[in-house]
Amino acid sequence: MALPRDAAIVILTGAGISAESGLRTFRDADGLWENHRVEEVATPEAFHRDPALVHRFYNERRQSLATVQPNAAHLALARLERAWAGPFLLVTQNVDDLHDRAGSRQLLHMHGELVRGRCLGCGAIHPWPGDMDQASRCPTCQTGRMRPHIVWFGELPLDLDRIYDAVERCDLFVAIGTSGHVYPAAGLVQAAAPGARTVELNLQPSRVASAFQEARTGRATDLVPAFVEELLGG
Ligand code: APR
Fold first, then answer.
1. Where is 54: in which H helix or E strand?
2. Which residues line ligand 1 (CB under 6 A)?
3. How far is the CA of 23 from the centre of ligand 1 (A)?
4. pTM score > 0.85 for this model?
């Protein structure tokens, strides 16, 4: 069914949309990094216990951004945003910058961003393209130590008010490349307005697939451009 061009769209993406760019997803791999469970590296407790280890983990991931490019799925979502007349919001759980580099602007990184750092002293957030370590200091207050601007397990995702506000008002909610394991992102589909159309695009049905009206399985670089063409009437 065609969607009116002024309809409100919210799209949620996860690691699956970046998989074909060459970034490993969390749960398709074995969930391990150098024999550490990822959940054990990505916590405030881990950072407190062993900041050097946690910095090394995120430095590696930040460096890997230089070796990857946005793929056809990222580019299709940027094209949809440019062409769509109605309200549009892209919410990503990904900490990579591939949506940004594809040209998406109405974009919220609910789990933070690899390319930013946050001061543990004054809270200032700064672009941080290179490595970070315990000697890194805040450019604003000059004294505070820095941490990755990443939402760790046990921390509250960013921009939740804006996200729920958009989801509750949307006419179309689409989840792409996310396994449905991590809340609150996995529960956003339940917050969509009763009349909203809900669609999941994923390599395999996610853990919350039954909450969507429609689930399409396949690769993001196939499914997303095709879905965008449908919406734009191409
Ligand atoms: N195209 C579409 N979907 C894919 C592709 C692909 N090429 N490759 C993998 N997938 C799907 C997988 O089937 C899986 O359901 O993407 C999903 C990736 O799931 P996860 O690895 O669990 O990633 P995500 O859902 O984004 O994880 C959520 O968990 O570790 C935390 O904070 C981290 O943001 C992350 C959150």
1. helix 51-64
2. 14-16, 19-20, 25-28, 38, 93, 111, 177-179, 181-182, 202-204, 206, 219-220
3. 10
4. yes
